[in-house]
Amino acid sequence: MEGQLSSPARASTADAGTSLLGRGRFVFRCRPFSYYASSFRLKTTIWSELGGSVGDLGTYIPIVLALSLVNHIDLGTTLIFTAIYNIVTGLLFGVPMPVQPMKSIAAVAISESATRLTVPQIMAAGISTASILFVLGVTGLMSFFYRFIPLPVVRGVQLSQGLQFAFSAIKYIRYEQNFTTGKSGEPRPWLGLDGLVLAFSALLLIILVTGSGDDADHEDGSLPVGCSGRGTPRRGSSFLARIPAALLVFLFGSALCFVRDPSIIRDLKFGPSGIHLVRITREDWKIGFLRAAIPQIPLSVLNSVIAVCKLSSDIFPDRDVSATAVSASVGVMNLVGCWFGAMPVCHGAGGLAGQYRFGGRSGASVLFLGVAKMALGLTLGSSFVRILGLFPIGLLGVLLLFSGVELAMASRDMWSKESSFVMLVCAAVSLTGSSAALGFVCGILLYLLLKLRRTSFSSFGGGRGFFKSDSGHEAEAPLVVPR
């Protein structure tokens, strides 16, 4: 894969990228070497990039741990393949592009205890989802959809996903968790190696070091999520911005694993896991597609592609992260790794927001994460699950909380009442029905209904299709994503 694929929506940057649709025919051009050479160039300190590299582990660790314990997915194989994905996507995109589990597939595999999905069925679901996203990407259909999706609907999806992460984070902090059953247990004790005091201390450290997340943004000249350039840098924040708070929290939690149970050292087996080709029967394809792929496909389209591209264009306007490229990337990753038993993965707006929140500003952030995963996969293999099983869940909740809040704050650029109305309805339906696809459909229908109302109103001489903004001046509704 020598060049990154870009959508027709970015035709103005065709000299620096690729295009899949050029006057109805397939066109492919490679990016110049200088583009990829800059992918791993540090935009801030190395400590900030290291801090950003652990920004999405609040979602990665619980899901991969549960799939390893419940469904017996090989952790060593997953670590090696996701390490390769991290390094390659960091090179191709030049941003801290996350590699996260496919959450709907994982939820079905973990929660449906009557007849749990087998490894071949999980792989079949991942390959089926990936095939559809790959086709949507290489044909240009994903870019076509991305161009015409209203901005408030995208913000509604981001808001709902961010709040869902935040709600889960609060549960991680307040209650004991059993990831094998997916249920919360007794209230977490105040004291102990995974108590509330520990979680609150980590929370306080991150807030004192990073504040609301604006300080680091101003230090490197980039913009906060959803911000259009307002705000001024705070004096005296440069020293705090250099402290990798998230990395310190993660390293401290890793050390506590051995304090909580020193005997895990004897359970570690050195060397990589054996990588084998997964045999998938016709029945596995049927069960995997019907039970797991069908609920995953709309979530992947919305959160793994549409929301990721919009968020990336907000915080990294200098990098061309197209819907075509992201969709094809998700397809290629799983069309390769799932055949060898690696966990089905995708990109995610929550992971991107988390890595950005904790300092990730370039592909170097996920490069560091990929190197760490590769080292663990080659040295400890599947036995690393013993360490993950003892990681303080409260600390994971703290990391996940900031990731969710950062993603939700992308919605703060909905200045008009009508845009906010569409966004909030979309988010509310997504949260209530636990379905991003349902919220998306409702948001689109509401947007079209409001547009029809304004058009009909203006045709009867009742106005010009404008509505009052919050400041009281007439302004046109910023309802469509600018391309």
From TrEMBL:
<feature type="transmembrane region" description="Helical">
    <location>
        <begin position="75"/>
        <end position="95"/>
    </location>
</feature>
<feature type="transmembrane region" description="Helical">
    <location>
        <begin position="190"/>
        <end position="209"/>
    </location>
</feature>
<dbReference type="InterPro" id="IPR031563">
    <property type="entry name" value="MOT1/MOT2"/>
</dbReference>
<feature type="transmembrane region" description="Helical">
    <location>
        <begin position="321"/>
        <end position="342"/>
    </location>
</feature>
<protein>
    <submittedName>
        <fullName>Uncharacterized protein</fullName>
    </submittedName>
</protein>
<dbReference type="GO" id="GO:0015098">
    <property type="term" value="F:molybdate ion transmembrane transporter activity"/>
</dbReference>
<keyword id="KW-0472">Membrane</keyword>
<feature type="transmembrane region" description="Helical">
    <location>
        <begin position="239"/>
        <end position="259"/>
    </location>
</feature>
<feature type="transmembrane region" description="Helical">
    <location>
        <begin position="122"/>
        <end position="146"/>
    </location>
</feature>
<feature type="transmembrane region" description="Helical">
    <location>
        <begin position="362"/>
        <end position="380"/>
    </location>
</feature>
<keyword id="KW-1133">Transmembrane helix</keyword>
<dbReference type="Pfam" id="PF16983">
    <property type="entry name" value="MFS_MOT1"/>
</dbReference>
<feature type="transmembrane region" description="Helical">
    <location>
        <begin position="421"/>
        <end position="450"/>
    </location>
</feature>
<keyword id="KW-0812">Transmembrane</keyword>
<feature type="transmembrane region" description="Helical">
    <location>
        <begin position="387"/>
        <end position="409"/>
    </location>
</feature>
